[in-house]
Amino acid sequence: METKAVSRDLLEEITSMPGGDAVKRCIQCGTCTASCPNAGSMDHTPSELIAMARAGMRQEVLSSKAPWYCLSCYMCTVRCPKGVRQTDVMHIIAFLAVRDGKVPATSLTPTMYRLFNHYCSMGSLPEMWFMARFYMQTNPLRAWRLMPVAVNLLRRGRLGIKTRKLTPAAAGQLRSILAEAKSLGGGN
Amino acid sequence: MRQYTYFPGCSCSSEGGARAYNWSIGAVSRVIEAELTELEDWNCCGSTPSGAVDELGAFCLAARDLAIAEKTGRDMVTPCSACYVIFNRTNAYLKEYPNLKKDVDRALAAGGLNYKGTVRVRHVLDVITTDFGYDAIKAKVQKGLNGLKVAPYYGCQVVRPGFGFDDRESPQSLERLISALGGDPVPFPLKTRCCGGSLIISEEDLALDLSHKLLESASVNGAECLITVCPLCQTNLDAYQGRVNKKFRTNFNMPILFFTQLVGFAFGVDGKALGLHTNVVPPVKTLNHASADKAGMVNGSDIWTR
Question: Which of B70, B160, B208, B270 has its CA 20 to 30 A from that of B191?
Fold first, then answer.
């Protein structure tokens, strides 16, 4: 029995999402790759990812580390001569990878993004608790190495224990909105 | 007095790590007489991470804020480049993709809200330089910067993907602002390149490389300090400057200011009110040095006029 997510064509899925529609116009000129500050560290460059998606390499595209190295600096998007929104394409691939459970274990960015979204959906990002929880979940040893950064911020009053909270009414409203979004097919 | 709805975003809220940005915006807006009213019960815009995890949910996060802002009938201004992009992108995509709009409308309705799509979202830099203008800024300068060499750092999202404010790769508004304040904007070829963004948390090595390039470029071009328009850029370049120094065996000691801290200083606002004590690399000496020269000049001319 085939599952719906796997049987769908990756290229069609990308083009059906906001910002992904122009991907078929890509002429493989490589301008996005040449403009990307992190292309050198990616397992597949941005233009390669598009070529792979068009070749139907679903598994390889979704498990690539590249979308998780995207900085969202939008340099590729503004320079593309064919109007491909490459930054959006990277986000879409990341989203599909999360949805299909294909995120690469070698990047910590998916964990960071999930945690970030968890706090956002409650209304506000408490920076200190977000960072602390991220390092506890991933690599407590690294947290230790970053102590000088944290101490500097604490000493200057920039890391507060106090967190911003929405009023109960607003928090409830946000919950209702996100629950409805989820019932419409959103959420992960 | 011009009135705006103000969206600080998490980092620039009074509990956030960039609270000094918030304070300095408050101080500057009082001088130029802009009235900023904080959006009631706003939620996080979702930034980039939410969109990559929950696409529809992320649009709904932003749409809730926009719907509440729409009731005020004013432009919504934000100091955060990420919030600026998210809201403008949401506005643009709700118009461009009717199916998305339908889903977002239904979700908002579950919270008793609706959004017609009329809110204009602006960045603080845009409002200060466009609505008030360089001459008005110049007229408010009390202390001046006496040729202080400043690197104008835009970062990415205030100019890209581009929502009609300044050039996407070669913007000029910060340079003109620095000149209006009496400072000297240094040539800074990397002014719209990325600082590493939130990858400083998950892929620190990649992000430190990018921050290192920026600090090096600013430094070799003679900058005595660097100004930013984004809370994350400020944190990366300021709080992680020690990490850059450690990794690259460099010796940077470059003050990194929110651009409104520099504006406020030139206006003669007290350093404490601008949160200058919260910057990790202390900026006060550099700033005082610049204005001390100027003060000497002013005193000198006083003697002549007496």
Answer: B270
